[in-house]
Design brief:
Radius of gyration: 20 Å
Number of strands: 13
Structural class: alpha/beta
Number of domains: 2
Bound molecules: pyridoxal-5'-phosphate
CATH topology of the largest domain: Aspartate Aminotransferase, domain 2
Amino acid sequence: MTMQPEFGTFFLPGPTEVRAAVLEAMVHPMIPHRGIAYEAMHARIVAGLQRVFGTQRPVYLMTCSASGAMEMAIRGAPEGPILSLVNGAFSERFARVAQSCDRATRVLSVPLGDTPHLEQVQEALVNGGMHGKTFAAVTVVHSETSTGALSDIRAITELAHHHGAMCLVDSVTGVGGTSVETDAWGLDFVFTGSQKALAMPPGLAFAVASEAYVLQANVSTSRGRYLDVIEYEEFAHRSQAPTTPALSLLFAADTQLATVGAEGLTVRWARHAAMLAYTEAWVERVRTSGVGIGYLPRAGERSPTVSTITLPDGLAALAIVTRVAELGFVIGTGYGALRESTIRIGHMGEHSVATLAPCLVAVERALRGN
Ligand SMILES: *Cc1c(COP(=O)(O)O)cnc(C)c1O
């Protein structure tokens, strides 16, 4: 076995740092995936995730990255045009997936760092639709990992429902880091990936579909095969996956969810909120001391899992990230259009203010050039 470095150096906004015990769980020998030991593990993982997602519905355990669940959401969505709310690279990906699945798609964009403007969403739903049909579904990203903005998915789902549309939610950096109440908020389809706030290795997606979504998907002809939501729904009742699941990753998920459950969700959300508050105070202190950094999203709309920080002219993201790496910490450059002008710190998963603080010391040194 290789030596495990001490926990607390890896702050990428995905994949996130995975605890040694979770990595070690993956060396478990194989088991039959159509057998009682597997079914027991599957059921345990689903039960853990149901608490995280706030749902009584089955959680689909998918062997693919989160983008696979994004495509499932679109493929099984009700027939008709789709309204895609775009405020960054991942919400744009959602719109592209809709288009690539041959859906008539209207994109409603806001400036990077913003969250979707509710009046505009309302107006698009009232006046909108395409080809004489009203919108059948809205796509939205909860925590836009490219900008660090946190959208009000509850309000957007309410609006969508009011206008007869379903709401499809990418909560890849939301689920596990902030409260998501799938049932109470009426989310029609919501998903995450293993490698973000749940702090598992990459390679799994977790998704929940509402009963209403599944009911209409039953008669859809565009569901595809590998990502067929109805297949997942049917196998969920037997605590199995439709195709051979990534067993090693599920051993890791099983181990990690025990930790998530033991911590308790209220404590977990508060830990993430505390990391955001700590980073906000740090940005403010560094800024007022003369280094012109700032938050991209406005206060009150910032994700508790990822901070996207703007750099002053003359400081390049790659140079900062490289210097921080020399000091022993991994953070991210910006993403997409923001690649050079921002840095991103992923403060999620098993991190805490205690592990984040030394990382921010290193970032501050890099920013000050010492
Ligand atoms: C990471 C991420 C994705 C894509 O996840 P993959 O696992 O790479 O497919 C989608 N949406 C958001 C918001 C993300 O942060």
